[in-house]
Amino acid sequence: SGLFIIITPNYVINMSSYPVPDGLAGEIFCRLVYSKFFIFTFGKGSVLTITCLAVERWFFLMKPSKYKANFNRRKIYKYLAFIWLTSMVTQGYKLFYVRYSKRTCSFIPLSTILLNKHIETAVITAYVSITFFCPTFVTWVAFIHIYFRISKYTTLKENRGRRRRRALLRMCAITSLVLTVCWFPTEVCYIINQYGFPVLNFGTPFREFTVLLALANSFVNPWIYAVSNRRYRHILTLFFRSFYTSSS
Prior knowledge:
Layout: H1 2-7, H2 23-34, H3 37-62, H4 64-70, H5 73-90, E1 98-101, E2 104-107, H6 110-114, H7 117-150, H8 156-192, H9 205-228, H10 230-247
Antiparallel strand pairs: 1-2
Helix pairs in contact: 3-4, 3-5, 3-7, 3-8, 3-9, 7-8, 8-9, 9-10
C-alpha cells in the first residue's frame, strides 16, 4: 500500500508531473495504476485480513476443538488466496472507468458505464457493504463475543490464561478500532456522494483527506502489532537483524 501511494498519481506525484507511458504501456498504466486498482486492492485486502484474524481468534478461544481442523497451514493459505482474489475482483470495475488518450489518463463516470444513476448507487452501496461494512461487522461481533466470554473466567489458573488472552485480544481490538476509524469516513462519503453533495466529490480537500486516512490504515497496522505484542516485536527484530546481516 505504501509503495502504491507513492506511484499512484495525485497522491504524492501530481498527475501533471507524471510521465505516462506511450502505447500499450500507457493503456495498462491507466487501467491498473491511475485507476487506483492496485492501491485499493491492497487496502481492501487489509480490511479482509483483519476480519480473517478476528474469525481465527474467535475459533481459537471459543471453538478450540475445531481450531486445528479449520486453521491448519494449508487452509490458511487458501483463506489468504481467497482474501486477495476477492479484493482484486471487487476492485475490477476500476479497470473499466478510465480512458487513455495521447499519454493522458482520465476517468469515465460510472453512471455512463452502468447507463443509470440508480444502478450506479445500488452497485456502490453493494460494493461498500461487501468490502467494508460486512467485514467490519463480523470483526466486531467476534471480538465482543470473545470479550464477554473471557470475562467469565474466575479461577487463578484461568485468570492467568485470561490475562494472556486479553493481551492478544487487546491488540486485535485496537487494530479493528483503527480500521473502523480510518475507513468509515471515506466509505460513508462514497455512498452519500451519490445523493449530490459537492463537498464530498472526488478531488475536494475533505474527500482526499478521507481517502488518505483510509490508506493510512495499512501503514499503521504493523506499528500496532509491534507495540502491542512482545512476540511480534521479537520476530520482527530477528527479521531485520537477519536482513541486515545478509545485506552486509
